[in-house]
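Anyone opening a protein record will find just a pair of labelled lines. A complete record is shown below as an example.
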Amino acid sequence: MNKLVPALLMLSSALLLAACGTPPATSGAEDPYAVQVGTAGTATCPTTTAQENSVGAAATNQARRQAGLPPVQPSPRLALVAARHACDMAQRGRMTHIGSTTTGPAARVRAAGYQPRITAENIAAGPFSQTRVLGEWTGSQGHLKNILLPQVSEFGIGQAIAEDGRTRYWTAIYAAPK
């Protein structure tokens, strides 16, 4: 147990959060913001429930309301895309905006049949509940920029649990259709 506490404190202090409005140009290059969180392995990849997506949208809307912005609507399609990316990260043990087969959030939402006018993505990894992750994102300047993009009108969130059973990978997608 004593060995676990420093590791969890290190994870918590690093908080392992990343925000992405426009993914870095990759042309085969690696995501410069990627963090290897754990080892690759089997992940538990639940489907986002309507309740979880609504809770995420409500937290997003609280921050948007305080900034005088219109609310976002929870999108089941964006939640599915977010959950798939969280699963991909958990399976690789890597927190990154670049997917195994995609270059960033816009490519992922387009592959799901969503025609975006704008996309942004927040990601996180650690032993964090949805409530904690949403609070950390709204408390972080970079993540808050994505939440407060005026053009955004839809939201989706997803999570996956790494093979260790403790580490959760989170993805939130903020978008607006064309």
Q: What stands out?
A: Confidence is low (pLDDT under 50) at residues 1-15, 21-28. The two ends are 51 Å apart (CA to CA).
